[in-house]
Amino acid sequence: xxxxxxxxxxxxxxxxxxxxxxxxxxxxxxxxxxxxxxxxxxxxxxxxxxxxxxxxxxxxxxxxxxxxxxxxxxxxxxxxxxxxxxxxxxxxxxxxxxxxxxxxxxxxxxxxxxxxxxxxxxxxxxxxxxxxxxxxxxxxxxxxxxxxxxxxxx
Length: 154
What we know:
Elements: E1 7-9, H1 13-20, E2 25-31, E3 37-46, E4 52-56, H2 61-68, E5 71-77, E6 86-95, H3 101-112, H4 118-128, E7 131-140, E8 143-145
């Protein structure tokens, strides 16, 4: 059986966003107040302005950490465990109710499409006190796949 060779594909911002849009599984890495890393598995999307977006709650560690230190990293994974992935480093901004409501509508629409009742959705977001983390990409690694180094190819 031939060995799969690892790949690293460099992309510009448009290529990065095209890669991320259909992928919604990610790990958000923030820094605790002591500087140690904290990772959160989550669902992410891309907003209409090209920022990565995450729905959350104000009490969550990722939210508190992003407020304290807005330099974050997001590792976006493919649904297939062995599929391509990318790490994105960026600057986070946290939005809370009421400022988060319309960006949460955009988040939902960009990931899941149209909601059957947007007024109901907006009300639920306010009642739950939902927050949104927006991440502006500043740097990203190549889109990578796992595998063997080329020197070990059959």
